[in-house]
Amino acid sequence: MTTHARLSRQPLAAVLITVVALVAALACAAVPARASAACGADDVARGRPALASSVENADHPASAAVDGDPATRWSSQFGDPQWLRVDFGSTVTVCQVTLVWEAAYASAFQIQVSGDGNAWTTIYSTSNGGGGTQTLNVSGAGRYLRVYGTARGTPWGYSLWTLSVRAEGGAPDPKTPPESWWGDTSTIPVARNVLTVKVLNRTNGQYPDSQVFWSFGGQTRSIAEQPYIDMPANSAGRMYFHLGSPNGRYADFIEFTVGPSRFEGNTTRVDGFGLKLALRLRTHDGREAIVGDDYPTFQESRQATFQRFVNEVPAEFKQLGQVDAPYRIPAPHHTAAFRPGGAQAGYLSGYAAQHGVNATTEEIMGCSGPLRENPPLCAALNRHVAGLSPAEQRDPSRFYRSAPANYYAKFWHDHSIRGLAYGFPYDDHADQSSFVSLDNPRYLLVAVGW
Q1: Which range has the worst mean pLDDT, 15-19, 92-96, 242-246?
Q2: How far apart are CA 75 and CA 91, in angstroms?
Q3: Angle in degrees, CA 320, 256, 439, rounded to 5
Q4: For the whole prediction, is pTM greater than 0.70?
């Protein structure tokens, strides 16, 4: 089992140890554990994407039940069964559901949760519902919740003024894109090879599909010509993306290794930022992993992202957001300022010397030279946790608290899904990178932004 991102940046022993740890972490994450946090006060369903089995008419859409307006409602067609589903965007532990029924109510219904929107677990059921306002104390974890009606209390359909949901710990992470953002996945063709890759245009209207290009395996196509790639097994692969033309300067890439029944890959900022990218990997048995730039970053303009970088990093790093704007934000070890002879050549070398490491700032930020085969130490120097205990060096709450540190990497962690990013070559130490690895893959969605 090999992964291109790792083999190009660290020795095989470190690769195997890290991959095993990551696979174990992903396996644990696939089974939501019940939290002990108190039931939050926020309505985590409010404003979230909603879907229904049917609507009576356009005046009563599914979204009306979660829009926070008590005067609007969802109403279904007149038949059984019917359902209303809400997508929280990420897994939450539901602790209370409140239903405010219109005159057309359910006499029999279930409250169900799901991790994937396909397999459902019932956390509440009744066959003698009386309508009105029902506040139900429940317990269950999932990304999705639905009200599943099996018997109507009137000859009409099912109608809800309000569906509100409270969860342990409050609202889900707003950094995770909503389900609707990923588009319709039901029509993705089944791969003849290992998995199907679908490239999504998420440039906010800046480029049409005919000007969003991907390149892999000697082929270059726009997604208007070919949005799907039937991905074969391959070793150490890269897929490149360009906007405007097949060789346009707005460009970036993802890395991956595809085995006979496994996908391993990542987004990366090790060399620099070119385009906003996010990955959603899904398996045939319903497991999934999502990594990459976060939803607010995709939603904002390119100019805003560059300016945000300049605003948030210390003075030594600001020029990274300007030296090649608007095309790239290069990693510090790829710029003259942080190399020997540059204005910031000594930025990290003195800190490293305090911890017994004789290395240049370029070598520290690139994990090269004396740090080439020492992932823990290189990561500790970039995160400014060298000298702390091994447990503290793996605690993300301690990273980047003090200068000097790799604030270029910190920026991408601050603006990534679940805080995971590849900001420097050994950023996978302590499981902080955007690496994903799952068996039995079904499809990979690659969102390309502006």
Answers
A1: 15-19
A2: 27
A3: 135
A4: no
Question: Does one domain contain both 11 and 73?
Answer: no
- Tokens (6 digits) for 400: 């980047």
**Pairing label, strands 212-216, 219-222:** antiparallel
Enclosing domain of residue 121: 50-167
Exposure letters 16-54 (e unless 16+ CB within 10 A, then b): eebbeebbeebeeebebeeeeeeebeebbbeebbbbbbb
10 Å CB burial of residue 68 (0-12, 13-18, 19+) is exposed
Angle, nearest 10°, between helix axes 302-312 and 407-414? 130
| Band of pLDDT at residue 172, cut at 50, 70 and 90 | low
What are the residues whose beta carbons fall under 8 Å from the beta carbon of 121, sequence distance 6 or more?
Answer: 112, 113, 114, 140, 142
Query: In this structure, what CATH number is given to the domain that contains residue 293?
Result: 2.60.110
The CA distances from residue 415 to 254, 258, 300, 408, in Å, are 18, 27, 12, 11
pLDDT at 34: 33
Same domain, residue pair 384 and 447: yes
The answer to whether residue 288 is domain-embedded is yes
> Is 45 a domain residue?
no
Residue 112: strand, helix, or coil: strand
Under a CB-based contact definition with an 8 Å cutoff, are residues 263 and 281 in contact? yes
- Verify that 301 and 238 share a domain, yes or no: yes
Q: Which two tokens stand for residue 202?
A: 């998420």
Pair 419, 395 in one domain = yes
pLDDT digits (tens, 9 = 90+) for 11-70: 333 333 333 333 333 333 333 333 345 888 889 998 888 999 999 999 999 999 998 889
Contact (Cβ atoms closer than 8 angstroms) between residue 5 and residue 22: no
**Residues 6 or more apart in contact with residue 312 via CB below 8 angstroms:** 411, 414
| CA distance to 35, 132, 156, 167, 200, per residue, from 161 (Å) | 30, 10, 15, 20, 35
Say whether both 291 and 324 belong to one domain. yes
3-state secondary structure 2-28: CCHHHHCCCCHHHHHHHHHHHHHHHHH
Q: How many domains does the chain have?
A: 2
Percent over 90 (pLDDT), the chain: 79
